[in-house]
Design a protein that fits this description.
The chain is of the alpha/beta class. It has helices spanning 28-43, 57-64, 78-92, 105-114, 128-134, 136-144, 154-162, 207-220, 236-245, 262-268, 283-290, 303-306, 321-333, 335-352, 358-367; strands at residues 16-21, 46-51, 69-71, 96-99, 118-123, 148-151, 170-172, 193-198, 225-230, 253-257, 271-274, 295-298, 314-316. Helix 2 links the parallel strand 2 and strand 3.
Length: 385
Amino acid sequence: MTSDLRPLTSELRGLRVCFLAGTLGQGGAERQLFYIASALKRSGAQVQVLSLTDGECWQSRLQQIGVPVVFVGDSRSRLKRLVTITRAVMAFRPHIVQSQHFYTNAYSGLAARLTRARAIGAVRGSGTADIQNCGSGLASACLRFPHLLAVNSRAAVRAMITLGCPAHKLHYFPNVIDLELFRPGQPSGSQPLTILGVGRLGPEKRFDRFLRVLALLQQSQTTPFRALIVGDGPLRTNLEQGARAAGFYPGIVRFCGTVPDTHRLYRKAHLLLMTSDHEGTPNVVMEAMASGLPVVATAVGGVPELIQNGATGFLAQPCEEHRLAQAIGRLLIDDALRREISGRARAFIEARHSLSSLSAQLQALYRSLLPKELSMASPVQAKAV
């Protein structure tokens, strides 16, 4: 890890934490898991990761820092998966079983209760979107079975309370950014300027809206631009067809697919456009801000907690595509405005979401869950299953 991460205090030494991840593919939740596992390892805690997928990119990175990764997704049966997960938890004897994705909360909660551990679930999106994606039955279990829910945006905390989740069960646990990895670069000053889009090419990220905003932008001004769309997903073919129909592809818009080192692209771009319908506290926005990129985004989920409109970026409602295009147009023609937004955005991330804050956040999270009498130096004795 970089020097931006301060050593954790001895309060976490001896703690045993077993994480359950639905996937270890390239995504914001998986990057946050890597940060947390790295921090706990540095503190002297014992960490294990259980994953429902095998062989994805963050698996090898976790293993490189000495975190064992166990594949527990070999069966499609939920009951058989629960048995496999519970046996793996029992063998590790953790104090805490922590889910990294909402849809794995039920497994974590049940396995923890069966092994006398404590369970932390995750709410990483807008909250309501997670529930809709899981369906009412599974969503209810994912909210009920964990002892505590770690929520990465204040907007999602409010949404969960509105839906009837007890406030005492919700713990705000914001995402953090490695400020050494994501830092300002020196994009080329020559034309055309580069608009960056990063995310899974699925329906929730609304890259169809991204393309429509580019069309509006092209109609309203003569400043040349190009766009890079980074990510992959089920809608890629449809999006490529839409870009071709608009005259953008392959000349103006480039589909880059999955890129392992996105921080290099941030340094070469001039601004980020995010057009999602649902978000929690998006890593993409924070990474761009840390990299000195002005961000133009839809005001959804926790995005307004990051971007102060006109000061650290620009916001518009999802239906206001013309306002998104207007904001991009201003940034394309005004170098001084881009520099001002860039500096303020970077300063905001340094103050609120630096990796160095993870120590205090982890201590607060685990202290709120573990009984006062629990000695973190002694693992919990698990029951046989």
